[in-house]
Design a protein that fits this description.
Blueprint (H helix, E strand, L loop, with lengths): L1 H20 L8 H11 L1 E7 L2 E6 L9 E8 L7 E9 L6
Length: about 100
């Protein structure tokens, strides 16, 4: 029990640090947001309070069963900034 109580502050600190480290498109310029996706290939970006998604630079960062769909996000300087893509499940049409 003592070990748990001693480690609890570190767990709480780590979770709050992770939440603060997530970039938020509303606090970034269009150029900075799109550059972040392009440079990292895949990144989780917040788009509001408790709203976030994974954005990718190209198809290479998606699973084989997925396709890319273009994404425009609101940034601090642009209400509709093209920042890259999302990975979505491929729709298979059957007859």
């Amino acid at each position: 029990m003592r070990t748990f109580l001693l480690s609890l502050p570190f767990v709480l600190l780590a979770s709050s640090a992770f939440a603060q480290s997530m970039p938020n498109s509303l606090n970034m310029t269009c150029t900075a947001t799109s550059n972040l996706v392009r440079q990292h290939g895949a990144v989780v970006i917040g788009t509001g309070p408790n709203i976030f998604d994974r954005y990718v630079a190209n198809q290479r960062y998606c699973n084989v069963q997925q396709v890319t769909t273009p994404v425009w996000l609101q940034t601090s300087d642009n209400p509709q900034c093209f920042i890259g893509y999302r990975c979505r499940e491929r729709i298979i049409h059957t007859r």
